[in-house]
Every structure is written in structure tokens, then in C-alpha cells.
Amino acid sequence: MLIHLRTLGCRLNEAELETWAQAFQKAGHQITRELAQANLVIINSCAVTQDAARKSRQLIRRIHRDNPTAKLVVSGCYATLNEDEAAQLMGVDLVISNKDKAQLVEQTLSQLNFDSMPAMSTEPAEHSLFSRGRQRAFIKVQDGCRYRCTFCIVTVARGEEQSRTIEAVIDEINTLHQQGINEVILTGVHLGGYGSDIDCDLSTLIRTILDKTEIPRLRLGSLEPWELPEDFFSLFKNPRLMPHLHLPLQSGSDSVLRRMARRCKTEEFAAIVAKAREEIPHFNVTTDVIVGFPSESEEEWQQSFEFIKQVGFGDMHIFSYSHREGTKAATLANPVNNEVKKQRSKQLHELAAQMKQDFIQTQLGESFSVLWESQRESSEEGKPSYFGYTPNYLRVANMGVDSGDLENTICSATLDVAIEGAVLVR
Ligand code: SF4
User: Fold this and answer.
1) 288 C-alpha to center of ligand 1: Å?
2) Is 129 in the pocket of ligand 1 (CB under 6 A)?
């Protein structure tokens, strides 16, 4: 059977898609990038915002329209929060909520009467990640979150914290490394909460991965800026742990952070970043910020802007607050009007672009080992160009390569010139 997999939203959804791809291959089926060829389509949906939920419905309809004969299975946060609605969408044969995601492959094969043909399972011609044009693997290590940030629907859709065992994570990483993967990214809903339900913690997981695998590059996904274990930053002494952290700040105003029910004040956040910069060479910190949270006053906005400027970030994801049914924030008074939100978002994008350039400037002339990903366009002379990331998560480009195929190789490069969206190397 030919199976096509699609995901929207977060890296966790991407990691789950990868796990399902491998499980379907083990069950003797094949993964195809071509929707039209597929007998079965799996969609991992998203509902982080109203807009994401709308896009999930849109994708479901489009896929059914473009391949009406394929069986259609929908999972993910949109399907979990709107199970009946999802089940009634045209073409949907099966809805699997987040709590049953680990059994998605078995349930799909049994409930849709597809044979499982383990005998047919041959070593996939090409690892399903590579066949999907990817060289870095997201590894889901935990799910769910015990916190209730007032703007967050994910904690509602994904439930309580559940950690995978260290052994299961090590096995998956070793399998991926044997199949040619050189970088894995640990991801979760609340990565910092890893181990809370199995008497373990994130530091122990990282240390054990560095001890029991030979994966060249280990990267951490988004990490809430609290509960970081005492010895956390000493782990980065190991050059296989990438010196980059994505620490969602959400606001640089303490009174807004209180209304968001965030567990980290600006002072604590600044202290974490200062400690990391002190201990880890070339450390890059990136973040998420919401502008226009209900009743965010001009004064609070100025506080937030000044704090962000003072800390400085290598990159930022900026979100304009959007009303999300089912969250506590949706019940808060004094919504900020759209025009003001737009202005604040524009101001912050300008600051973010400047800070990114400032950080890149401090890295020019430095040499880093780069994992080169897929070849992109060719230079005038027809020589291939490659993109990749430095350990501290700078996107770099190698234009007009005549030293053979760089795809999925790690080699040193010197940062030369900053260009739009990347840094040219020599
Ligand atoms: S810690 Fe993260 S996942 Fe948990 S409620 Fe807050 S924003 Fe959502």
C-alpha cells in the first residue's frame, strides 16, 4: 500500500509523522510523496490558533478533493478538540485523538481493514526522512504539559505530561544514526518537563544520549525558560550538544507575564540567558513573543520592547495575539485593537531583523562544522548550492560547490558574508 503523510503545526507533529512512517514501512507498506498515488493519507492536524484549525479543515478538504479514492485518517490537536466535526468532514474515514496517537498505525490498519504484511517489509530503499527531503530528525521525547499558560490551547489538546523511556529514545536515535541521520532534535510539548512522570529529568536524558549514542549532533527543541536543572549548562561542554536554545519569552513585561500565567519573570529570564552566554561559546538564543495580549497597555508594550532589546536575540518568532476559544485568555477583557497589534508587530519585526544581523556580525570570520542539507538551485556555472545550519543554528549557504555532493555531510566552513536569510561561507 502507498501511504502519504502530511502535517501542520509543531515539530512534535513532525516527529510523530516520522515515527508513523517508520512503523508503516515496518508493516510492509511504502511511503510516497505523491498524494495522487496514495491509497491511504494520514494528516496530523494543528489547532494552536483558530487560523491553524481553519487550515487543518482546509487541508483535509483539499486532500479529499485531490485524491477522493484514498482512505483518510486525521489525528492531531484539531481532530482532538473537534472530534465530531472532524469525523463529519467529507472523505474522513477515521479520527484518532492525541491520546491514541501511539496506536495510530495499528488502529488504522485494523479499523480500515488494511493487511499488515511484515514479510514484505524490506529495508526501505531510502529512509523515509530522506525520501521526504529531510536530513534532521525530530525526536518526540515527551507529550503533554502540567502548566496552564492562559493563551495556550496545546496543554488542553495534549493532556498531562507523559515521557518516553530513555531506552526507547536511545534506540530510536541509534536506528536513525545507522540509517544515515547525523542530527536529531529533542522535542516535546513541555520538553523541560521530561521525566517528571518517570522519576527522571532532561539533563539525565541528554547525558545518556551523549554517552550511549554516537549521533554527531544533538539539538534541543523549544524549551520553557524554567525548571532548568542546576547542571544544565555544563552539558554544553560536549561539542555534540548544539549551543542554541529556543526559550519562549512571550512578553518582556512582568505584569503581562502574570496575566499569561507564565512561570518565569523577566529578571529570571535575563539571568538564564546571561549564564548561558557566560558558559557556552557562540551560544545563540532565539525566542517567541506574543504582541497585543489582552489589555497590553502602551506602557507594558514599551517595557516588553525595551527588555527584548536589552537581552538581544539571534532570532525571534513574533505572534500577534489571536482569540482562542477554550483558553483562559479568551475570557480576558480589553482586547488590543488590530491596528495597534499591527504597529507593535511591525516594530518588533524591525528590532528582530536588526538583532539577527547584529548576532551574525559577531559570528563572521568564525569557522563552524556545518551539516549540509539538500542541494538547492545551481549557480550560474551550473554548480550546485547547498544550505545547512551551524551548531548555533545560523542558516548558511555554500553557493557553486565543485567539491562533490555535500548533501548530508558535516564539514567545516568559515562564515563570510551575511545575505538575505543566510550567511555565505567560504
Ligand atoms: S508551558 Fe508551554 S505547553 Fe505548557 S501551557 Fe505553557 S505554553 Fe502551553
Assistant:
1) 12
2) no
Task: Say how many Å lie between the CA of residue 335 and the centre of ligand 1.
Answer: 21
Secondary structure, 3-state, 398-412: ECCCCCCCCCCCEEE
Q: Is the CB of 272 under 6 A from ligand 1?
A: no
Ligand 1: atom nearest CA of 262 is 6
The dihedral of CA 166, 167, 172, 173: what is its sign? positive
From its phi and psi, is residue 249 left (phi > 0), alpha (psi between -120 and 50) or beta?
A: alpha
Dist. CA 326 → ligand 1 center (Å)? 14
pTM as predicted: 0.91
* Tens digit of each residue's pLDDT, the chain (426 residues): 899 999 999 999 999 998 999 899 889 999 898 999 999 999 999 998 889 999 999 999 999 999 999 999 999 999 999 999 999 999 999 999 999 999 999 999 999 877 655 555 544 545 566 666 678 999 999 999 999 999 999 988 999 999 999 999 999 999 999 989 999 999 999 999 999 999 999 999 999 999 999 999 999 999 999 988 888 999 999 999 999 999 999 999 999 999 999 999 999 999 999 999 999 989 999 999 999 999 999 999 999 999 999 999 999 999 999 989 899 999 999 999 999 999 999 999 999 999 999 999 999 999 999 999 877 666 666 777 889 999 999 999 987 777 678 889 999 999 998 887 778 887
Among 2.60.120.260, 3.80.30.20, 3.20.20.190, 1.10.287.70, what is the CATH number of 130-363? 3.80.30.20
